[in-house]
Amino acid sequence: MMFLIGQGERVVALGEPEQRNCPKCGQLTAFQKQLRYKYGSFDMLFGFAYDKRYQLACLQCNHGWILDARTTERELGRVPIPFHLRYGLCVLAVLAALLGASAMAVNGLL
User: Fold this and answer.
1) What digits encode the pLDDT tens for the residues 22-31?
2) The whole model's pTM is what?
3) What phi-psi label fits residue 60: left (phi over 0), alpha (psi between -120 and 50 degrees) or beta?
4) I need a labelling partner for 75 at 20 to 30 A (CA). Which of 38, 67, 95, 106 fits?
């Protein structure tokens, strides 16, 4: 049996870009609200997200500002991280507990 263990980073665009003056580029460019997060996964089904941050970034040079997470999530209404990366580790723990409990029940230990 082979298990896949991995990690990665994703950037999710939120909403439409808006024009702002970029201090690094020195010109008027498009800025995009983004969610940047890192994740770990076990067998590509059970994962967890960490180092989550919302940002407003220049689409040319990636310079920008970090946004307040609570305010941004309130505006969005939901967190755009997939279910298997938000709650996957909890689902794996529950499945392991159920499997362990059923094995103990079969062996008469419960």
Assistant:
1) 989 889 999 9
2) 0.79
3) alpha
4) 38
